[in-house]
Design brief:
It contains 9 helices and no strands. It is an all-alpha fold.
Length: 195
């Protein structure tokens, strides 16, 4: 990686860290420059504006989620194993920045272009892949029911990852490992004859 790429990556990483710790509304180009060891002129040179910088940082982060769906295409792996690998990878991305993911959800709606683009990805590619694996596992053909299954899976596996800190410190509830959560969910959700 060259010096320009390193600097740009450091600015993007600092932006994500600041959004995570302070929220979108508190992030300024000055804070980003100071925390990244650069200056305002350099941040503006690379990104042009605070909104473009935040959008690119979020786009990079949300791209990590998109990459997790690739395992669902590997038809040499049994459907249940593909789904487990996908869920594990997705939670791994959430675990990197649970506060940031929670903030993105909390602001709702597509405030940044990157959020809109990720929503489009989910609608046109991501959910289609998950729905296909669920159809393989369950034999269910009703698209509405398959979409409900996706929401139930996401809620059962991803919500605890997002709320882990709150549940632990606020309610004294220890969230089990992702593997244990999936074992429980799969044992109760999918038929024994599921692949």
């Amino acid at each position: 990686m060259d010096k320009n790429s390193d600097t740009k990556a450091k600015i993007l990483q600092t932006t994500l860290e600041l959004i995570k710790s302070e929220g979108f509304e508190s992030v300024t180009v000055r804070k980003i420059a100071a925390d990244s060891g650069t200056n305002v002129a350099l941040v503006n040179y690379y990104f042009g504006s605070k909104d473009r910088l935040i959008n690119e940082a979020l786009s990079s982060f949300l791209g990590s989620f998109q990459d997790t769906f690739d395992v669902l295409d590997d038809l040499t792996v049994a459907p249940k194993a593909r789904l487990r690998q996908f869920l594990t990878s997705y939670v791994s991305v959430i675990s990197q920045y649970p506060e940031l993911v929670a903030r993105i959800f909390a602001i709702g709606g597509a405030v940044f272009t990157s959020q809109y683009q990720y929503g489009q990805f989910l609608r046109s590619i991501g959910f289609v892949k998950v729905r296909s694996v669920l159809q393989e596992l369950t034999g269910e053909a009703d698209q509405e029911l398959l979409q409900m299954m996706i929401m139930q899976l996401f809620g059962a596996i991803f919500l605890p990852a997002l709320l882990k800190s709150t549940l632990s410190t606020g309610a004294g509830i220890e969230v089990g490992s992702i593997e244990r959560q999936m074992d429980l969910l799969f044992a109760r959700y999918f038929h024994e004859n599921a692949k």
